[in-house]
Structure formats: C-alpha cells, structure tokens
Model the fold of this input.
Amino acid sequence: MDVALDAAPAVALATDARPLPLRLTAIRYAARGVNVYELQAIDGMPLPTFTPGAHVDLHLRPGIVRQYSLIGPTGDAGHYAVAVKRDPAGRGGSVHLHDVVRVGDMIDVGRPRNHFVLHENARHSVLLAGGIGVTPMVAMARRLRELGSAFTLHYSVRRRDEAAFLDLLKGEELRLHVDVEREGRFMDVGSIVAEAPADAHLYCCGPAPMLDAFEAAAQGRPGGLVHLERFTAAAPSATAGGYRVRLERSGRVVPVRPGQTILEALRATGIDVQASCEQGICGTCETRVLRGRPDHRDSLLSDEERAANRAMMICCSGSLDDELVLDL
Ligand code: FES
Done:
C-alpha cells in the first residue's frame, strides 16, 4: 500500500513475521460503506506498538491477506483498529470483512509495519486524503494534535455521509471537500500542493488519480518532503525473466524464467519466502540486494533508496543484470 517519493528512514527487513491471533471485539459503523474493526489479544496482553501511518496484514482466510492502516491512537497498546470500505469491485478482502466476519471471530494479524512515516519534527504538515485513504491520516492527525504541531488535513469525499471520523478530525485543521456540494468538482490537489509552505511535509493517500495528481504537483519539491501511500500497484510486475537469482546464504541459484517474478521462481523451486500483497505495496517481501541491479517496480522505495541499490521487493521487481545476488 505505500509510498514512492519518500526519503523516510528505510524500513527494517521483515524478520519475525509470525502473525498474532487476535479476537475481533467490535465492529462499528464509521460512514456509508465503511466499518471499523477492533482487535485485541485473547489474553489481554499489550500488542506491539506502532507509529502513525503504520499498517497491519489481516489474514482473512487461506490465500487472502490484506493490508489496512491502523487508525490509532498510537499510545494504546491494548487494541488495534482498522477501517475498511466495502468494495464489491475489489479483490474480496473488504467484502469478506463486511459480509462474513463477525464479532468474536479470531483473525491472524501481522505485526505493524510503516512505510508511510510521519515526520514529527516538521514545521508544517499538509495531509491530503481521498475517501478511505483517510485511514492513515487519522493516526497522523491525532499525533500532530498531541504534539501541538501545525498541520492541515484536506479530506475529499463524494458525499457527506461517506466522510468517516469527522468526530475525531473536526477542528480548524480540517478542510472537508464534498464533491456533490461543489457541483461534482474534485478537490484541487494541484492548488493545495502549490500553496503549501516550501518546507512543509506533504502526505497523500487516496485513489490512483488523486495520487497521480499529487505526484505531478509535487514534482519540484524535495523528495524527502513528499510522501504517498498506494492501495494498488503503480506499475506492472517485472516478468520478463531470463536472469538468475543467487541466494547468498543458501548458495542456491534459481533461474527466473519469462513470465515469472522472482517470488514465483523461488516458490517454484520450493523456497518459502515471506510475501503478502504481491504487488509491491506492503513491504513484506523486502529483501537485501548484495550484487546486481534490480528493476524496481514497487510503490515503496524512494528514488534515493532505489539508487542505493540495497533492497528490493521480490514480489514485483526484477533484474537489469544477468544475475542478482540476494541476502537469502
Ligand atoms: Fe507486499 Fe512484496 S511488497 S509482498
């Protein structure tokens, strides 16, 4: 789900990915088509902490793992809460949560990861949210208020009853844009970015056209000030194949054939690698690169991180060289 232009601290490579078995303790209405799901440990033990912008994997059933942002508050270690919009045209995760899952069910939940890091020392932060893209912004806005930091939150919805968390977000920082109340006009992302202070950190999460407009508008700004989170892949996976992957720790060499991603090639030879979204948006499969140049296709690594050539997402990225050496 995240980020392209971010120069935030590099995320740690996934190590202990064992999910936590959590009890679904509440389902609450948040807005038209949007529910909040609250999860707690069965023994009431504290859950791993998280920072604003973090997400977790929900293992909904075999083969269905979905990522959802934690809405916070970040200081509450007792439970996790995520908000999910029912999307009949989606890949099935949201429909499963809305139509099948019930309070009391157990759900395996991955440990929080954050590729959409809030820069808490910013002099000003500008948050742009479209629809259900508001979810990471909820935790961010809560934290910025707690810090007394200057920020504005531009939140766009088509209809007023689709706006979630207005009780939490209301205040002078909130600019709510309701399309149907503006003769169907979309929020003017370009103007918001143009009018933001030059040193402001900008964050955007929402549908692809909004993110594309944001990226275009923020082109001239330093990459370290521009942060975005995607829910869907920004580029097709690299499947040209025709190269090999050398696994440094095991000494194995695996050919990646045309039509395969690296992840698929490894699985085909019986090598089990952690993965979740399989479209370059969650970071579960992030792998250290020891030699060779990846053909990056993810939505997570910043330009600086790509140039550093130290890590890649093997679910979607390929190789520009005949051999890629990975720390596996
Ligand atoms: Fe999600 Fe690769 S980035 S599995």
User: Anything to note?
Assistant: The chain is about 15% helix and 30% strand. Residues 275-278, 280-285, 298, 313, 315 surround FE2/S2 (inorganic) cluster (CB under 6 Å). The chain has a mean pLDDT of 91.
